[in-house]
Amino acid sequence: MKKQALLLGFLFLILLTGCNLKSENKYKTPKEEAISKIEILKSLMNEAKKKSIDITREETTLWFSKEFIKFADWDEAHKDAISKLFGYERYYKPNKDSLAEMLPDFERRKVIQILDKSIEDLNKELKGEIKRRPVNKVDWQNAKAADNMFVSNGKPSFPYDYFSKTVGQPLTNEAVYNDHLGALYHGGENLYPVDHDRAINSFLLKEDGTFDQELMKEITSIPDTNIGFLYYWSMGIPEWVEKKEPEIRKGRSLFTGFDIDNPLAREVWGKIIRHTGELTKGKKVTELGYVFANEPHWYSEKDHWTYKYKEMNGISSYTLNKFRSWLKDKYNGNIKALNSNWDSSFSNFNTIEIEVPIDKALIGKPVWFDWCRYNMHRTTEWFTFNQNELHAVNPEADTHIKLFPRTFYEDSRSHGMDFEALTELTTMIGHDAKALGSPSIRPHINSDWYKDYAYKWDGMAILHDFVESVSPEKINVNSESHFLSSGMWRDLEARTSYVRNVYWLATLMGMDANTGWFWARDPDGSPEDRLEGELNFFDPGLGGAYAGSNNMQPHIANEVTQVMYDLNSFSEEIIALREQSRPLRLFYSETSAINTPQYMTQIRKLYKSLFFEGLPLGFLTKNIIEKQDNSTWNTVIVYKTKYVTDAEFAAMQSYLDKGGTIIIDSSESLLMNEYGKKRSQKLSASKGKLVILKNASIAEIKKIALAEVADQMPDVIIESDNGKSFKTTISRVVKQGNGSYLVNLLNVGHNTAKIKLSLKSGKSITIKNLMTSNSVDSEFNLASEEVLLLEIKQE
């Protein structure tokens, strides 16, 4: 009721503001005002062109202004359709008619807002008050995937677009594929029973072993002009496969509509992957890789929300038999050892049974560990099979998986997703990292974070720091960025400052390309085909997604492109800032994550406490110790990590043997093996430094850890005071070749932060705002969600 009251208040304010605007300004209507200001901006742009001032940013504002005036007209003429679309989202449903009524003028006023900002900025540049760097556009035809970044026009490049772009529009339609909305070619998400839109799916293969040539044209007819990526979309399975394999759907997941252990499923997908891999080899549409799955997970615990979507409602005989074989290897054929662990009495490995979904009461028990570990093993094996099939015919193909971030940063580990193994496997890093710009619109979602921060940044951040620690030299692709809205949140009055901050932070932390959720307007302003008529999707995500999205927000859609322009204009600086060592690492154990009910909750608390200290944080695992140069980090923190395998323990000892530093929160950490058996061995300092604390608090651990990396801290001292007991200013510093310092500041708090900059040496400094070319004092205010990119020089 409280949220409904706030929404009604918002509507009243909009209507009241509209009345006041009509009575106080010279324009009869918001549309008239918007059109008039378009002419003002165009006049200024002509003046700027004569002075050789770059007007790329203004061209985008102008484009979005014209588009949304057109969209507002469509919405005004089709209020019943808009009301229906609002009604598909339960948060908006009670007020769908009044929202449809107010939307056209809301959009027009937001157009006025972006025009006013653009006019103000260009006037400043014309008067010499600011000087902006010209935009370095993405070359949509010729950008290339290099070792760990995309390159366009000889510089690092951050391609951007919208995921699931309006279906039915040809890829050559410049009203949909352009610099403003992005121009990546990609197979979009489909929620119909039969897939479409260039997604590679199960229906391509017919029972006789031949391929459906009509469906194949969706792939083969893609113009070889713009760069992009292709999806392997595994939602459905043909009827002929079901007839041959009655178990084919047993053990399915939300977005994988079949059992990945089924031999016929593998045969079908092996043929499809090989054939499409050959057909698309070397095409520009694969420059950003082949995506093997959409948000894969196989949650297999009782009472999980995925159960109602038929996810892991049981397991097939194929999965059970493969599990039995895996257990036989794990226990070296010793059934007595398994029975002792499981408290069972199986006569041999072929008689082992397990109930799936598994009871959460078993968390911490050997049977829980074995199932969860095996579930990860079989998933990794499935994607290894996918990649091997592709590389057999297309060895240079880049690959990634749209990893579902919650499966990493939330506590459950019954989902079968080994983030480290999958990040190591694919040639690119793939995911769909999210953020919440406002408190959740779902009453059951905890929004306590809002007390401290302007937006929920930590899930996106911890995911990036983990995958970038695992594979620091890989390109990072967010193929469905939910920064603008999601099923958890949306806000018609979303802040442009939030958009700039979150896209900047994600890029700073490793994101090389992104496609946002989602663009669903056809060029005439109508919603795309899938949103017309009666919506009846298997997954309700798309149906309710249009309401309150960027498709109704000219200020948000425009700001996405504006921040991507700026990021691409300063791409070399962004790469320099993020390609720094991670001297402080948090130890991550999949063993403890599986066995400990709140392992990630605890790790995230420690992570957040250290995130604002001016150094990129990193993670450490057994594999990272064994595969990467140990000298690239300085200190490791072990926190609330009770369970580790003998191999993990041995890796930690080897790190100490090489001279590393380990801080352990208590004698409880590293105490048990994966089955809860107490370990007799103790770590030895050897050539390194071992600090074992006694049930230390996060504050104590933080103090000791920061002391260990004190000599790794930047030369620029950044003091920040937001009036709170915790920090909200994210800072990165890198020394440049000319001796100057590049400093990036982002405030994710509600309060303005008072900033003071100085050098450790105490020498005097000059500071320049690189976005405006203006000088900055050493003490200044950093507004909530403000982003600054500064250059500091010694005088």
From TrEMBL:
It holds the Pfam family Glyco_hydro_42. The keyword Cell membrane does not apply. GO terms for molecular function: beta-galactosidase activity. GO terms for biological process: carbohydrate metabolic process. Keywords: Glycosidase, Hydrolase. Transmembrane segments: none annotated. Gene3D superfamilies: 3.40.50.880, Glycosidases. GO terms for cellular component: beta-galactosidase complex. InterPro entries: Class_I_gatase-like (IPR029062), GH (IPR017853), Glyco_hydro_42 (IPR003476), Glyco_hydro_42_N (IPR013529). This is Glycoside hydrolase family 42. It comes from Aquimarina aggregata.
